[in-house]
Amino acid sequence: MRDARRLLNEYKLTDFQRQVLLATAKIPKGETRTYKQIAAAVHRPNAYRAVGSVMRMNPFAPTIPCHRVVKSDGSIGHYSGRGGSKAKENMLRREGAL
DNA sequence: CAACACAAAGTAG
DNA sequence: CTACTTTGTGTTG
């Protein structure tokens, strides 16, 4: 997580991206958060799509646990990482979040 | 500077 | 349960 913060400080990002990536990195293991919660955490309660937009291009793909971010109803949603949503669900199961 | 795209959520039927 | 509309930010032209 500390590694993510260092990268956020180094990387050229907008304030929104920093907050979103940081908030995502702060999600406790074995727990999931909705895009809505992430958006609310960065004071953009209606920017849940923007959060996904940032995650999609995620410059820290393996550094930020974006797989812990799920839809409001608990669905996995999409995942641009390796294995896609399938791997995402698998990771959540291993962490005890699902 | 303007238009397009998105990993969602909300509301309606 | 399924379908359509809405919304904010990033990226690309």
Q: Kindly name the structural category.
A: mainly alpha
How many individual β-strands?
2
| CA-based shape | globular
Top-tier CATH class: Mainly Alpha
Tell me the helix content: 40-55%
Number of alpha- plus pi-helical segments: 5
User: C-alpha Rg, in Å?
Assistant: 12 Å
Distance between the termini: 22 Å
- pLDDT averaged residue by residue: 91
Strand order of the largest sheet: 1-2
Structural topology:
Layout: H1 2-10, H2 15-25, E1 33-34, H3 35-41, H4 48-57, E2 69-70, H5 84-95
Parallel strand pairs: 1-2
Helix pairs in contact: 1-2, 3-4
This protein binds a DNA duplex (13 and 13 nucleotides) through helix 2, helix 3, helix 4 and strand 2.
Structure description:
The protein has 98 residues and is mainly α. The protein has one domain (2-95): Winged helix-like DNA-binding domain superfamily/Winged helix DNA-binding domain (Arc Repressor Mutant, subunit A). The protein has helices at residues 2-10, 15-25, 35-41, 48-57, 84-95, and strands at 33-34, 69-70. It has a two-stranded parallel sheet. The structure holds a DNA duplex (13 and 13 nucleotides).
In short:
This protein is mostly helical. The protein has 5 helices and 2 strands, in the order H-H-E-H-H-E-H.
Keywords:
98 residues; mainly alpha; Arc Repressor Mutant, subunit A; two-stranded parallel sheet; 5 helices; 50% helix; DNA-binding
